[in-house]
Design brief:
About 75% of the residues lie in helices and about 0% in strands. The protein is mostly helical and about 260 residues long. Helix 3 runs antiparallel to helix 4. The longest helix is centred in the first third of the chain and has 23 residues. The protein is globular.
Length: about 260
């Protein structure tokens, strides 16, 4: 993808889509819908090539799906998956930017559906879609989005690539995505320590991430016999702390060290 096209799309995403996702994390449906409506207006209002506009439209469709998940989960989730998959599969992509964007969004949707038990995503299909995204365009954001599948299915080689990309682009990501992928990588690499796990838990400020830890990461720690009582106590403390705190998102300002420790 030409660098200027990638920069244009990323700039639009940061300006108009990240605020929507922030409200999704906080489960503010009405606010998220209002912000997405504004973002859709900007798809055509800001100058762009047909290829860039198509990519923006695909992102808006994906973001609408995220909002709808808040009210559809769990009973209507399969229908939502089918709808967004059909939208992505049938979309007109007039150039490389929209084609790469479609591959990236399909990876997001299919890895998420795999974790939710809707469809099984094979390694072959994952690598096929990943192969449509040039290595230079495999951004920290992409790896953050698909890390759940890499962790659940134990692909330390790809988690290593994700971790390396995040190390190479420290200014483009917040601390939470980096810490999450780092923990997953260390667990699957077999070098994680109790200190690594406790540090992650004490940092957490997001209810969604705490849910992921208790339902998907903790069972792996137990299976690998590294889920100690100290970690369990900290996990319970983290869940209790977040249940009493205002809901936050990774798009809010970073917590201070004291806030991250829950002190």
């Amino acid at each position: 993808m030409p660098k200027h096209a990638l920069d244009d799309l990323q700039s639009w995403y940061d300006r108009w889509i990240n605020p929507v996702l922030g409200e999704v994390y906080k489960k503010n449906v009405a606010a998220a819908e209002a912000l997405l409506s504004r973002a859709r207006i900007k798809v055509d209002a800001q100058p762009a090539t047909p290829d860039i506009r198509a990519a923006r439209q695909l992102i808006c469709h994906r973001t609408e799906y995220y909002i709808q998940r808040l009210t559809a989960f769990p009973h209507g989730i399969k229908e939502l998956y089918q709808k967004i998959r059909w939208v992505l599969d049938s979309a007109n992509c007039p150039g490389p930017v929209s084609e790469i964007t479609r591959a990236r969004l399909l990876l997001q949707i299919l890895t998420s559906a795999d974790r939710d038990g809707i469809w099984e995503l094979s390694e072959g299909r994952f690598r096929e879609l990943l192969g449509k995204i040039p290595p230079a365009d495999r951004s920290p954001e992409l790896w953050f989005e698909v890390a759940n599948w890499l962790f659940d299915h134990n692909y330390p080689d790809l988690l290593a690539e994700a971790y390396e990309v995040m190390l190479d682009h420290p200014m483009r990501i917040r601390q939470f995505p980096f810490r999450r992928v780092k923990l997953m990588y260390l667990i699957r690499k077999g070098t994680v320590t109790t200190g690594d796990i406790l540090e992650y838990l004490r940092y957490l400020q997001y209810a969604n991430a705490a849910y992921e830890f208790t339902h998907f990461i903790w069972p792996v720690l137990e299976e690998l016999h590294i889920g100690t009582e100290e970690v369990r106590r900290e996990m319970d403390h983290t869940m209790d702390r977040l249940s009493k705190a205002p809901r936050q998102s990774p798009f809010d300002p970073e917590p201070t060290e004291d806030q991250g420790q829950g002190q």
